[in-house]
Structure to design on (209 residues):
């Protein structure tokens, strides 16, 4: 029994050691960014994180969020930080997804995310939406999980984005090869309501041109 306690303590000691490779793997999947909690899971105490930040190995992005200095700053840094604060199940959506796809010139005042179920997280300047997110509705862009283009267009249409901006986003997404007419039609039928009306109207207009 004594030996089992010794081995257990030894395992705890081993797991508490900083593991640079583990932290790199986490950060690499997030464009170099990581949270204090993620660093802790790789064996870095808060004081050690602070030490590396002071030494220049880690760059402070915001309270509780860092970036490995070997990675360049992302042009979407604010969105990355908001995503890390929102939680790993959050997916960039709505106005923020439109911005990420560069389908809108509007700069959202809040970072929009969709989660598959209710979340207790509430943070300033973060808008949480709750909805089912099947795998085909989520893609990766600029290192961030984001709703697909058809899903994004349907979401903003349902949320009340102006008709002109919705139809403009449809045209741009088709012109740039970000989606296809069949995918947009399928999404329109799933979404129904205003989203269906606007998407199908714009696609009909495309056929007439």
């Amino acid at each position: 029994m004594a030996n089992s306690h010794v081995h257990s303590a030894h395992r705890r000691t081993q797991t508490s050691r900083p593991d640079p490779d583990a932290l790199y793997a986490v950060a690499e999947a997030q464009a170099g960014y990581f949270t204090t909690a993620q660093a802790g899971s790789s064996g870095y105490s808060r004081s050690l994180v602070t030490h590396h930040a002071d030494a220049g190995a880690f760059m402070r992005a915001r309270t509780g969020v860092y970036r490995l200095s070997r990675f360049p700053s992302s042009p979407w840094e604010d969105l990355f930080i908001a995503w890390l604060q929102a939680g790993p199940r959050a997916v960039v959506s709505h106005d923020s997804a439109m911005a990420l796809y560069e389908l809108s010139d509007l700069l959202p005042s809040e970072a929009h995310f969709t989660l598959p179920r209710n979340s207790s997280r509430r943070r300033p300047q973060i808008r949480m939406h709750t909805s089912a997110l099947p795998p085909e509705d989520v893609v990766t862009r600029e290192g961030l999980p984001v709703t697909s283009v058809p899903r994004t267009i349907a979401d903003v249409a349902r949320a009340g984005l102006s008709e002109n901006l919705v139809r403009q986003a449809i045209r741009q997404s088709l012109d740039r090869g970000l989606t296809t007419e069949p995918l947009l039609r399928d999404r329109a039928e799933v979404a129904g309501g205003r989203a269906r009306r606007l998407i199908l109207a714009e696609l009909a207009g495309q056929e007439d041109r």
Observations:
- The CA atoms of residues 6 and 145 lie 43 Å apart.
- The two ends are 80 Å apart (CA to CA).
